[in-house]
Amino acid sequence: MNKSTRTYLLHGGLFLITLVTTTMAGAEWMFGRLFIPIDGMVTLGWDEFVAGFNFSVPFLAILTVHEFGHYFTARANHVRVTLPYYIPLWIGIGQSIGTLGAFIRIQDFINSRRKYFDIGIAGPLAGFALALVVLWYGFTHLPPPEFIFTIHPEYKKWGLDYGKHAYQHLPEGAAMGLGDNILFNFFKNHVADPARLPHAYEMIHYPYLLAGYLALFFTSLNLIPIGQLDGGHIMYALIGYKRFRLVSPVLFTLFAFYAGLGLFKPSDFAVQTDEAFFSALGKFGLYMGVLYLAFSRISENRMTSLIVTLSVVAAQLVLSWARPDIEGYQGFLAFAFVLGRFLGIYHPETELEEPLDSKRQVLGWIALIVFVLCFSPRPFMFS
Q1: Cα(174)–Cα(201) distance, rounded to whole angstroms?
Q2: Which pTM was predicted?
Q3: Of 39, 176, 182, 312, which residue has the fewest beta carbons closer than 10 angstroms?
């Protein structure tokens, strides 16, 4: 077996495994049960697995279109690139979407802003276009509202008013809902039949809505104009190396500030016992350590990274003291850590710093508008 055949088998095998894991994860979201028995719970079987294709097929289709948008544009620009590597991940206890995504490896040095722009923008815009189709189909083909009783038969006693009763006595975090962004809100209010629209905490059981929403969520993360994310490539190409080197760390600092806002408040330390005080102080110290690691590559000078970290934490505490009702979204902290520590917040300089033509400039700002339409300040809600 030659190297080329082994490579194709690797890519194809990873795709098939990811198709299986996303199908299993989709079935678990759809039916609210697992394939692995836990505490005597009724497990899912073959019929539910097959139904899970209603999630995995549209979701992987969007992911695949995204990656091949990069792939074909790179080839058109004579940049050597691999086929997509899919990353399967199914943990078997829920709260998984069956994958960590996919990526392609660029095997050549990209020497111009224009090439970075073309390759960076093609993926998210292609995936976004298909996500719109999936969302349109999902919202125009909603089942009757009584469908939710097949998932939660215990809701029948409340009828279609279950939303006023079902979530009052659940443990904290037991119910999860999809947050809002401008585009998802438009589909809910102007495309869907209001009589068939499920409660926010039940949309996770509707596979096309879940697949489309997750596509918007990951598109928004990809289009954040920081570092070497797709949005970073686009912004770098739009404004050039020197300006981007100023803009990117500012945007990253604001993102990290919002992510951790409200996680700790001054009132957390006004406790009655020494044990509680030192426990809060220990958690606060751990948070500062993680934040410092996230900012460790913002400057080659460690003292600068430390000063930025302390400034962000101080500003968070001051705002939380003045407005304790304002909170960020702590779920973004992990992404901020990965972005700052591993992916980096700066962009490599290119040999050719030629400005983009007017058509590409317009397309670049459209991509940033897409980011705004897809971004949700609180992408997931918990009861």
Answers
A1: 10
A2: 0.94
A3: 39
